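Lab notebook, bench 4. Still working through the backlog of constructs that have no structural model yet. Next entry is a single chain of 98 residues. Request: give me the C-alpha coordinates for it.
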Amino acid sequence: MRQNRAELYWQSHRFAEALADVEAILRPAPELAEAWRKRGDLLRALGRTDAALASYAEAAARDPGDARTWWQWGSLAWLERGALEEAPLRPVFSPEDP
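Model written out:
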Protein backbone atom coordinates (compact mmCIF):
# COMPACT_ATOMS: atom_id res chain seq x y z
CA MET A 1 0.00 0.00 0.00
CA ARG A 2 2.71 2.48 0.94
CA GLN A 3 4.56 1.75 -2.29
CA ASN A 4 1.47 2.55 -4.35
CA ARG A 5 0.79 5.70 -2.36
CA ALA A 6 4.42 6.79 -2.68
CA GLU A 7 4.15 6.39 -6.45
CA LEU A 8 0.97 8.48 -6.53
CA TYR A 9 2.64 11.18 -4.45
CA TRP A 10 5.65 11.07 -6.81
CA GLN A 11 3.41 11.53 -9.86
CA SER A 12 1.65 14.42 -8.11
CA HIS A 13 4.98 16.08 -7.26
CA ARG A 14 4.27 15.63 -3.55
CA PHE A 15 7.85 14.57 -2.94
CA ALA A 16 8.02 15.03 0.83
CA GLU A 17 4.99 12.80 1.34
CA ALA A 18 6.36 10.19 -1.06
CA LEU A 19 9.67 10.27 0.79
CA ALA A 20 7.93 9.62 4.10
CA ASP A 21 6.27 6.53 2.62
CA VAL A 22 9.51 5.23 1.08
CA GLU A 23 11.34 5.69 4.36
CA ALA A 24 8.55 3.79 6.13
CA ILE A 25 9.03 0.96 3.61
CA LEU A 26 12.78 0.89 4.27
CA ARG A 27 12.56 0.76 8.07
CA PRO A 28 11.55 -2.91 8.27
CA ALA A 29 13.18 -3.87 4.94
CA PRO A 30 16.48 -2.01 4.42
CA GLU A 31 17.57 -4.63 1.87
CA LEU A 32 15.22 -3.23 -0.81
CA ALA A 33 17.52 -1.67 -3.40
CA GLU A 34 14.64 -0.27 -5.43
CA ALA A 35 13.36 1.64 -2.41
CA TRP A 36 16.83 3.12 -1.83
CA ARG A 37 16.89 4.26 -5.48
CA LYS A 38 13.43 5.78 -5.19
CA ARG A 39 14.55 7.51 -1.98
CA GLY A 40 17.46 8.96 -3.94
CA ASP A 41 15.11 10.16 -6.68
CA LEU A 42 12.87 11.85 -4.13
CA LEU A 43 15.74 13.48 -2.27
CA ARG A 44 17.10 14.70 -5.60
CA ALA A 45 13.71 16.22 -6.44
CA LEU A 46 13.73 17.93 -3.04
CA GLY A 47 17.19 19.40 -3.71
CA ARG A 48 18.91 17.29 -1.03
CA THR A 49 21.86 16.27 -3.20
CA ASP A 50 24.17 14.80 -0.56
CA ALA A 51 21.44 12.61 0.89
CA ALA A 52 20.39 11.54 -2.62
CA LEU A 53 23.97 10.52 -3.46
CA ALA A 54 24.13 8.46 -0.27
CA SER A 55 20.84 6.73 -1.14
CA TYR A 56 22.06 5.86 -4.64
CA ALA A 57 25.26 4.46 -3.14
CA GLU A 58 23.18 2.29 -0.81
CA ALA A 59 21.00 1.10 -3.70
CA ALA A 60 24.05 0.23 -5.80
CA ALA A 61 25.61 -1.70 -2.93
CA ARG A 62 22.43 -3.75 -2.54
CA ASP A 63 21.88 -4.34 -6.29
CA PRO A 64 25.04 -3.64 -8.30
CA GLY A 65 23.36 -4.74 -11.52
CA ASP A 66 20.66 -2.05 -11.54
CA ALA A 67 21.62 0.29 -14.37
CA ARG A 68 18.98 2.86 -13.33
CA THR A 69 20.69 3.35 -9.99
CA TRP A 70 24.10 3.83 -11.59
CA TRP A 71 22.63 6.29 -14.11
CA GLN A 72 20.89 8.36 -11.45
CA TRP A 73 23.92 8.35 -9.16
CA GLY A 74 26.35 9.24 -11.91
CA SER A 75 24.19 11.93 -13.46
CA LEU A 76 23.62 13.62 -10.12
CA ALA A 77 27.27 13.53 -9.12
CA TRP A 78 28.74 14.39 -12.49
CA LEU A 79 26.25 16.39 -14.50
CA GLU A 80 24.49 18.39 -11.82
CA ARG A 81 27.34 18.91 -9.39
CA GLY A 82 30.22 18.78 -11.84
CA ALA A 83 31.96 16.44 -9.41
CA LEU A 84 33.53 13.72 -11.49
CA GLU A 85 35.34 12.36 -8.45
CA GLU A 86 31.93 11.64 -6.85
CA ALA A 87 30.57 9.83 -9.90
CA PRO A 88 30.47 6.10 -9.44
CA LEU A 89 32.79 4.37 -11.83
CA ARG A 90 32.61 0.73 -12.65
CA PRO A 91 33.54 -1.28 -15.72
CA VAL A 92 30.82 -1.72 -18.29
CA PHE A 93 32.11 -5.18 -19.17
CA SER A 94 33.93 -7.57 -16.92
CA PRO A 95 36.85 -9.67 -18.10
CA GLU A 96 34.57 -12.71 -17.83
CA ASP A 97 32.17 -11.36 -20.45
CA PRO A 98 32.39 -13.17 -23.80
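Notes after review: The radius of gyration is 14 Å. Residues 43 and 49 are 7 Å apart (CA to CA). Flag for follow-up if needed.
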